[in-house]
Description:
The complex is a heterodimer.
Chain A: H1 2-13, H2 18-33, H3 37-50, H4 60-69, H5 80-90, H6 98-109, H7 113-122, H8 133-140, H9 145-152, H10 157-161, H11 164-176, H12 193-208, H13 226-237, H14 242-254, H15 258-267, H16 271-281
Helix pairs in contact in A: 1-4, 1-5, 2-3, 2-5, 3-5, 3-6, 5-7, 7-9, 13-14, 14-16, 15-16
Chain B: E1 3-5, H1 15-23, E2 26-32, H2 43-54, H3 56-62, E3 67-72, H4 82-96, E4 101-108, H5 114-129, E5 133-137, H6 143-157, E6 164-166, H7 174-179, E7 183-187, H8 196-206, E8 211-214, H9 226-236, H10 241-257, H11 264-268, E9 273-274, E10 292-294
Parallel strand pairs in B: 1-2, 2-3, 3-4, 4-5, 5-6, 6-7, 7-8
Antiparallel strand pairs in B: 9-10
Amino acid sequence: MTDAKTCLAGMLEHRLDEEARGWLAQSSAEVAEGVAVARFCALISLASRFMPRGALAPEADERTRAETVLAGWNTERWTVLEAARVALVLARSDLAETAAEEALEEAFRYADGGELCALYRSLALLPDPERFLWRAAEGCRTNIRPVFEADTCDTPYPFLYFDDVAWNQLCIKAVFIDAPLWRVFGLDRRLSPELARMALDLADERRSAGRDVQHELWLCLGPHGGERGLASIERELESESRVGRRAAAIALARADAPGRLAELLETERDPEVLSTMQRARDGHTGRAEFRALDQRSA
Amino acid sequence: MRFFDPHIHMTSRTTADFEAMAAAGIRAVIEPAFWLGQPRTTIGAFVDYFASLVGWERFRASQFGIQHYCAIGLNSKEANNEALAREVLEVLPRFALKEGVVAIGEIGYDEITDAEERAYEAQLQFALEHDMVVMVHSPHRDKKRGILRSLDVARNVGVPMEKLVIDHNNEETVEDTLGRGAWAAFTIYPHTKMGSERMAQVVEKYGPERIIVDSSADWGVSDPLSVPKTAKLMLERGIDPEWVTLTTWQNALDVYAQSGQIDVDALLAEPVIDQSRLFNDNSVLRGQEPRVDETVPN
C-alpha cells in the first residue's frame, strides 16, 4: 500500500537525524530487495538501536493525511520507533504473497512487547488484511495492555474484519482491563443487543461484588439496552462517581431517552455533569465524547 | 487448622510463598495446567510444562511439607491456536493418567469461541472415558453465559455433575452451578474476582455444601494465603467451624479424591520434611542447612 508507505515516510523524514534516516533508508532498501526471514526479524528488532525514543506526535495535517489513506488509521499515539518498524514491514516488495505472510507471522512469534505493538499496528495497512485475522484476534488475548491497545485502538482493523464473537469480546475486554474503549474505531456502528447484554451482565456482576461500574461500559449499550439498560443507567446516575454519572448521562442520550435527559437537566446540580448532559442533549453522544472522561491521557 | 488449596499455580510462586503457606497450615495443593501469560508457540513448551507439574513442582512442594497434586489440560485461551492445540491434545494422555493427576483441568471457555468449545469437548470426552474429575475455568468476560454453556456441554458429553468443579464463581453464578449439581469453587483474588468478605457472605447464604474456596494464585496480583485468610475471617464472623472446614479442606478433598489419586491417610498424617532429598541431583536449597524432620503445624 504505497500511500501508507509514503505517509509514514513523510512523518519520519523530519523526526530522524541523519544517522537514523540513513539506517532506515538502507534497511528498507535491503527489505525491498528481499531478505531471509531471520534478517527481516532482526531488522525489526535492530530498529530500536537506531531510532530515537519518544512519541511520533504527528501534526494535525499529518493525522488527516493518514486518515485519508485509511479511514480509522490514527497515528496520534504512535511512537517514532513504531512508525519506523511499520515502515520496514511496508518496505517488503512481496506483501501480497504468502512469503510475506509467513515472515510476518514469524516476526510476531519472536517479537518482544514493543515489536508486537508495531506489528499489530501494521496489520490494517497491509494488502488483504483479513489474512491476518487469526493473529489480530490473538492480540486480543494478551494480558499486556499496551499490546491490546496497539491491536485494537486507533485502527479500523477490528471494525472491518472481526466477527461478532471477537468484536464483542474486544469491547468487553477493553472495559474489563481498563483499556480505552472510546478509541476503538467504528464502535458506534457495531453496537448490538448481544453486546449490550454482555455489558449489562458485567454491570450486574460488578455491583454484586460491591464494585464501581467502569464508566466506559456505558458505551456498549447504544439503543440496544432496552428496559434493563435504562434501569441500569438510572442506577449509575444515582451513584457517587462523577465520571460514572457523566458517562451514564451520555448513555441515556445514546439510548434515545431525550425525555428523561430533559428531566434530569432540570435538577442536576453538579456543573460538570450538567455540562455533559447539555452536550448530550445537543447531540454530542459519539464515542469521542468519552475522551473528556478518560483519566489515562488527554 | 489444616487447609487444602485446590487451585494454585505454584510454578509462578517462590519458596517464600511455600514457607508462608506451610506455616499457615496449607497441607495440600492442586496445581492445574494453565496459561503462562506468554503464549506458547511449540508443543515442546507444553511437554516441558506438563512434565514439570508431575515432576519438579511436586518435588519442590514436598520440600516444604506440602502435598502437591495436579490437573492436566489444555487451557481455553491457548485452545484458540488450533494447530498447536491439536498437538497438545495428542500428548495429553501421556500426562493425564500419571499418578497424582487428580483431574483434567483447567479447561473451559475464555472468549467462548468454537475452537475453545472443540478443545473443551474433546477433553471432557477424555475425562469421561477415564472416569476423571474435571476442573472448569470460567471466563472473565461473559462469565454467566460461559458457566451455563460449560455446564450444558459437560452434561451433553455425559460427565457426571458430582465430578465437575466449576471454578471462579461469583454471586451471579453460584446458584446456577449449585443448582445443576456441580461443585462451585470460588477464587479469592485481591481486587478482581472475589474478596474474603464476599466469600464469607456466600457461605452464610448458601451453606457449605459443594462450595470450595481456593486462591488460584499465579503470576498476577494474587495471594497464596487466600484460603487460610478466608477461613480466619469466616470464623471471626461466627460461621460454624464445621462449615469452614468443609469449604477450605474437606469438600476439595472429597471431590478430587474421587480420582483415586489422593492417599487420604497419608495426607492426614503429620508431614515429614526431608529437604536433603534431591530431584535429579537438584535441591531447592541454595546453601542453607537442610530442614530435616520438622513437622508442619497443622
